[in-house]
Amino acid sequence: MPRRFLFLIGLTVFLGVGRIEAQNVIFDTVGNTQISTDTIIKERKTAKVPKTKKPHSPKKATLMSTFLPGLGQVYNGKWWKAPIVYAGLGGLGYLAYNNYYEYNSYLHAYEYKTGDLPEGTTLNQHETDLANKYADSQLQTYKESYRRDFEFYSILTAAWYGLQILDACVDGHLYSYDISDDLSLNIDPYLRPSGPLAPMPQYAQVGLSFKLNF
């Protein structure tokens, strides 16, 4: 009888200790979970939100090149095109200006030779030399030639200006376009099992599959 009593007391103590340990584990687990949750919330608050990158605007690139040639090319990342734009504008602009200057020089020399020079207009040294060197018909021929060249290079200058605007617009639209260098043809075996949805349910389909990447 005393042994049974002692056994019951020992069993009760054992169960009680196990129950206490279980509660401690539960409390510790809940506490750790709470700490982990608070840490996650704090990290979310302190984490920096990455700034969203503004999409590339073809309209902006076009307007930039319209108001300042070459600026749209720089905006598109094609900065090496800006010197080409200015070289073209500078070269064509110089040729247009030079032909316009020569046209006026021959015009004044021609008017001086024919007596049609407006009152108050004086010839510079270059125009005087032309008047003394060439006859009326020659001055007329050179004058018309320089006039045509001036108009021609003026048109080319305007065309070059418009072309660089168009180039900035096209590059702006293609800025986000992924042009892959992978151009390949893959040939793989093809097997379609038989089934109720197949064109011929009672037969399996075997063949080749062609995939072109570009």
Total domain units: 3
Give the amount of beta strand, in percent: 5-15%
Q: How many strands appear in the DSSP assignment? A: 2
Reading the helices and strands in chain order gives HHHHHHEE
Q: Give the low-pLDDT segments.
A: 3-8, 17-35
How many helices? The count is: 6
Nearest-angstrom radius of gyration? 44 Å
Mean pLDDT: 77
Lateral strand order in the biggest sheet: 1-2
Q: Main β-sheet: number of strands, strand sense, barrel status?
A: 2 strands, antiparallel
Helicity, in percent?
Answer: 55-70%
Overall 3D geometry? Answer: elongated
Report the structural category.
mainly alpha
- Report, as a whole number of angstroms, the end-to-end distance: 92 Å
Explained architecture:
The chain starts with a helix and ends with a strand. The protein has 3 domains: 1-44; 58-173; 184-213, no CATH class. It contains 6 helices and 2 strands. With 214 residues, the protein is mainly alpha-helical. Mean pLDDT is 77; it is low at 3-8 and 17-35. Helix 2 packs antiparallel against helix 6 (136-173), helix 4 (81-114) packs across helix 5 and helix 4 (81-114) packs antiparallel against helix 6. The longest helix has 45 residues, at 2-46. The protein has helices spanning 2-46, 58-67, 71-75, 81-114, 125-133, 136-173; strands at residues 184-192, 205-213. The protein has a two-stranded antiparallel ribbon with strand order 1-2.
